[in-house]
């Protein structure tokens, strides 16, 4: 598939896909005319890259981890790095859950302070 189709399917921008290639997170072939083309596995790979970025994994870490993720071959250092990233994500999940809980408390407290917040919007008498 061409770069535009991969971008459409994955929701990644063409610019992002080129960046992923530059960082060697993604690879493509070239047509005789020099256009990039990707195999079907690229969809899963781009999806994973986007998920890792969303979880706060840096592109440098991904460069180190991708060989282990996709080929199944790993060094002890790669496994340790995967474990480190998972622990970091667990910490972030806990922090986000605590923030969500605080927001829930604020919502309850704030609603309770608003006259007729649970009612139909008509002024109380």
From TrEMBL:
Every HTH merR-type domain range: 1-68
MF terms in GO: DNA binding; DNA-binding transcription factor activity
Stretches that traverse the bilayer: none
Sorted UniProt keywords: DNA-binding
Domain of life according to the entry: Bacteria
One Pfam match: MerR_1
PANTHER family tied to this protein: MERR FAMILY REGULATORY PROTEIN, REDOX-CYCLING DRUG-SENSING TRANSCRIPTIONAL ACTIVATOR SOXR
Name the UniProt record assigns to this protein: MerR family transcriptional regulator
